[in-house]
Amino acid sequence: xxxxxxxxxxxxxxxxxxxxxxxxxxxxxxxxxxxxxxxxxxxxxxxxxxxxxxxxxxxxxxxxxxxxxxxxxxxxxxxxxxxxxxxxxxxxxxxxxxxxxxxxxxxxxxxxxxxxxxxxxxxxxxxxxxxxxxxxxxxxxxxxxxxxxxxxxxxxxxxxxxxxxxxxxxxxxxxxxxxxxxxxxxxxxxxxxxxxxxxxxxxxxxxxxxxxxxxxxxxxxxxxxxxxxxxxxxxxxxxxxxxxxxxxxxxxxxxxxx
Length: 258
What we know:
The protein is an alpha+beta fold. It has helices at 14-37, 155-158, 172-181, 183-188, 208-211; strands spanning 52-55, 58-61, 64-67, 74-79, 84-91, 94-101, 105-112, 117-124, 129-133, 144-146, 161-167, 226-227. It has a domain at 51-227. The strands form two sheets. The protein has a six-stranded antiparallel beta sheet, with no helix packed on it. A six-stranded antiparallel beta sheet has the order 7-8-11-2-3-12, with no helix packed on it. A hairpin with a 2-residue loop joins strand 2 (58-61) and strand 3.
């Protein structure tokens, strides 16, 4: 049996409402002051809820590379609310995706190369998650399940560095928003890239993973990607990405967005 009601009522007076509003305002101001003390702008406290999706020209992971022939072939998505990056690859009629948590990123870099394309490089501390589309239905949201096979020929399990290229200017706004939403990423972009000495997750990798092409695993052989000899990209960008950074810019001429 429940406790009988005492018959007491609560009158919401104007003074109570004013006191609540004052308390909320003071708490908000306190959060802003704390953020400024940590060097974080107030807009860092709230991430945009809407994700950004942009067309990518290519994606390279180790010995595997996918080049886009059509706008839907390769897509990079920035999820600011859930703090994830996603690379979506169209394989025949179904999509596959690589999902990366921002917390898995140990180094990040963006620049414009000699071909005047925007490049995004990331280095991971852990292997990303892989998913594949279940059934294509244009009238409903995409349904995903854990991928049975690594469609990159196990390169996401071997290599920690991902390189994407975009048409010049396409990456500018999403990348700036990414850094504004995460103070840690805004800090690590100032460190040299790559950060880890080895491009591999495991120290002792067999020679074939670096010196010989690995054929990616693709059902129905529908040209979802190609295998190329792995070679770390040590070329330095020749042009600034969006704006010249005066903060910790390496002497090699690499210009980053901060």
